[in-house]
Structure formats: C-alpha cells, structure tokens
Fold:
Amino acid sequence: MLEIRGLRHDYDGRTVLSVPSWDVAQGDSSLVLGPSGSGKTTLLNVIAGLATPTAGTVRVAGEEVTRLSPAARDAFRARRVGLVLQTLHLIGAVSVRENLRLAQRLAGAKVDDARIDEVLASLAIPALSGARARDISVGEAQRVAIARAVVNRPALILADEPTSALDDGNCEKALALLLEQAAACGATLLVATHDNRVRGRFARRLEL
Structure:
C-alpha cells in the first residue's frame, strides 16, 4: 500500500528526513516515532503530496506520488488520503455537515448526506451536524476532523500528533476512534507522534 525508497528531504542545506526503505501493507496501522524536529511531520507531508522530497520515491496505492504534478497530487490526496493534522483546519463559520460536504466536493465526489450521517453516528456526534464548527468543543472538533478524514473512505489515513494536547482519557479515546475508523474503511493508518502513551497500541513502528 505504501512503498518508500531512498527518501531524503533537505532544508537549508541540512538533511531533516531520511528513510532508506519502508513498506506498509493495506489495512495495517503503524506509528512514526521520534522527538520534535525528527522529521515526522515532514514525512507525512511528503506521503500526502504536500511537500516534494529532495530525493527518493513514495508510492501510495500504486501511485507514485513524488512524480505527480501539483494539481494531480491535490486530486489524489482528496480522493485517497484522509488527514488529521495538529491544527484541525475546520471551517468555523459553517456547519459540521458543510465541512464534510466540502471534503466530498474536493474529492470530486457527489455530496452524500447518508454517508455523512453514517460517519457522524459512528463517532457519536450526529447531533453536531448543524452546529457551526467554531461553536463546538475541542474534543468534538477532533471527532469532526476524524469524520472529515474518513468520509471519502480513503485508502490511507495520516494523523499528525493527534494526542499530544490530550489528557490520558481523551488520548485513549482519540486512538480508539482512529483505529476503529481505519478498520471500518479498510484503510492503512499512520500516526506520527512523540507521545509515549501511544506505543502500546501499535505493533508496527518507524523510528526517526
């Protein structure tokens, strides 16, 4: 599902990321571990097509992302990749439903309100459908961000430090939600973190 070969990314003349080889099978869940500044976010950005590496190749679901044009990367990411970023980037002025509808439109799909209802129900937030994103709590916003990431049934879900600002109880809930939603989509899940509380939930790891 994910194949990385000879990946390197330089910034200001310094190598900030180096991954000689890494494979992750479809449906597997893996951790990307390392301290702040080790290149975790850079790796996720390269996999998602948000950054171009200095060298190497990244193949996702058979598509060599590193060879795509910027427009083709945007289209591929919208269709096949679900992102849960450190900053959630919900559109605060519109409803939760409209945030998910926008994700469907950006993927080139028809708006599917039944799918939106299904995802919101699976995350125990159906009552938030009509609420403006700026009016919901931080924990609710995190669930909406996960809903947005999975609404298009992505092949790959990337989560960047999803638990770093959470207490122990909410950390466990966030991990459970990500794992449950990935399993429901049959998606590969990659979680980048320096949070040691997460280690026990994942058998497969890449340490940077």
About this structure: The chain has one domain: 26-38+69-203. The helical segments are 40-48, 70-80, 96-106, 113-122, 138-150, 168-185. The longest strand covers residues 14-24. The mean pLDDT is 92.
